[in-house]
Amino acid sequence: MESSSALLAWTGGGVALTFGIGGERPARLLSLRPADALAATPDIDPNADAAPLVEVQILGQGRFPGSHRYADTTVGARLRHTGHTRTTDADGSVELRLSQHDPASGLTAVSVFRATADTPAVRTWTEIVATGERLTVQAVTSACTGAFLADAGLGVDDVDLVCGDSDWVAENRWRRTPLRPAGLAAMDPEAHHHAPRSRFAMTSRSSWSTGEHLPTGALVARDDSWSLVWQIEHNGAWHWEVGERHHGAYVALLGPTDAEHQWCVDIGDGGGFTSVPVSLAVAAGGLDAAIGALTGQRRALLSSRPLSLPVVFNDYMNTLMGDPTTERLLPLVDAAAHAGADVFCVDAGWYDEDGAWWDSVGEWRPSTTRFPGGLGQVMDHIREHRMVPGIWLEPEVIGVRSPLARALPDDAFFQRRGTRVTEHGRHHLDLRHPAARSHLDAVVDRLIAEFGIGYFKFDYNIMPGPGTDLADTTPGAGLLDHNRAHLDWLDALLSRHPGLLIENCASGAMRMDYALLSRLHLQSTSDQQNPLLYPRIAAAAPASVLPEQCGNWAYAQPEMTLGEAEFTLATGVLGRLYLSGHLNRMSPAQLGLVREAVSVHRALLPFVAAALPFWPLGLTDPAGTWVSTGLHSPRPPYETLLTAWRLPGADDDTLLPVPHLRGRNVRPEIVFPAATTGWDLFWDAGRAVLRAVNRAQAPTACVVRLSPDS
User: Fold this and answer.
1) In this predicted model, what pLDDT tens digit does every residue of 26-46 receive, in sequence order?
2) What's the CA gap between 427 and 464, in Å, rounded?
3) Whole-number Å distance between alpha carbons of 242 and 285
4) Helices within 246-307 (DSSP H only)
5) Tens of pLDDT along 234-261?
6) CB-side neighbour CA atoms (13 Å) of 386
7) How many CA atoms within 13 Å lie on the side-chain side of 542?
8) 336 φ/ψ angles, rounded to the nearest 5 degrees
9) Contact at 8 Å (CB) between 322 and 347?
10) pLDDT mean over 299-303
11) What is the rounded CA–CA span in Å between residue 676 and residue 671?
């Protein structure tokens, strides 16, 4: 007779997890709930037929039944609980380590869970080790669970999937689809004696972690009563999928895999592997509530790194566009200082001598033709205006025409079959190699020492394909090791220069992940140059990035109408206003509007850095001619701010639901622009709806504060 499983309960900070352990079953995560929702949860069956906590695909072991999925692995089914430990750190963070062993293969898997006080989320990963013969690991899950169904008392037909696509200048495109139409085909498992084998999968290949799809996704009850959201925290290749088992569904989160990424790794004789970390957040509410929980988790991930929140002017977007000179920069420095910027960042082109710099970069020496008096003259001028000097750098690439392409050893670059990987006229440095790291350390340290650089914009404009097979690794394994070496390099850099601020950029937001953003300070949300197309990107960005890290370009220009200038400046106010534009050519009135935007933004930054996002018109709803995003404080009286953009062709009015203020008396007021005309705001407390009316010529936009009675 098969022995019964038992329940293991663990509460970490603001989240409660319940596992099924023991018996002739692998450990299973049966429940994942906010800690304050315990009383509302039905009884949990320790013997429930749920997804194994860990799935491990081993060469020669495979899956049963066979499929494309990361479910039903033979090793995962054989794992058995062998023990667990609980610890508490000095900062109050708690950790659970749950161990399992497969005697047939000799593999041990340890699932690690870490949580922070008051955050209904958990960070988790898997550590595997083999003590016997060599095992070739082709995939290992960082998290696998079907708890989202059990906790909410739902079936597969009651759940929607939320996921996002991303592309250059078209980032953060979210959609919501019922699980069945998404790809979980209905069938009769009893008649066929096997579980379904369909799945919905999202995969990011190569090193642009958000270049095609987003590592964040959610499963939401159709009635918005319950939701689970996740993010894969890796600066390289990843995979997640949702599939259906014999009873219920599962979500599996992974880093690189063999089938998708040409990744595998050998373990044995005590050697092991650690998967990439992921975070899971849960809410007794809809999508906005779940992303609010994940927002708290993101802040917890960087709590040991105090965020500085300067206003940055960058000379690139719709301004110098990679063609800086002393003559062009000095008037911009004067104007940026007058507008109130704290940092002036000189973007691409500062090293260019002949106008053909793309495939010759790598030494990162200032141009002498662009700066006849030296780049130091510009940097001194920035400091004289009490701004921090910043500079653009693309550290991971060496142009094919650069002297460094010949001076550095071959082993310092990505290779495939003995040939250097070349993409878009660049070679890719392999930061596993000490010569590559020494080169970058020397470049950064020299720029800081020589020019007093306090802000770097780190860009990344190529992808090296599956990776590098140098040192007899698979390409995917080489890429993963480089990704981790890149993080180590950043950690060492920030330890060496603790006051340094670094912006994360990769052709805009093509590497917008929390492996990097837990370390770096600002995320460029797009390279989008059309101000009419930017609001949808900026509005959706807080689903992927903390509001206080969302660097939204605000590039007002002297030729814009007043409404157009207000429109583009408003795009930056409720994130991190990333200033650009030909400010030096503006009239006093035009520059006054920029100064107003900067002043309002700076006053709101403490609120932005503590607020939670919401979407009055829906994060996943079809794009319309009105766009809106909002932030609210997480505790009563729920002070709320929102931005409303009215695009050409829009109706004169729109309804903006604000559900968390239902039944409250609210005073709406426009905080930017102060002198705007044509806006009327009406609050309906019973319906919790703000009616915004604007009859001026579109485009136009405003930032609104909703102040509820205390």
Assistant:
1) 999 999 999 887 555 568 889
2) 8
3) 20
4) 258-261, 287-301
5) 999 999 999 998 778 999 999 999 999 9
6) 5
7) 35
8) -65, -40
9) yes
10) 89
11) 10
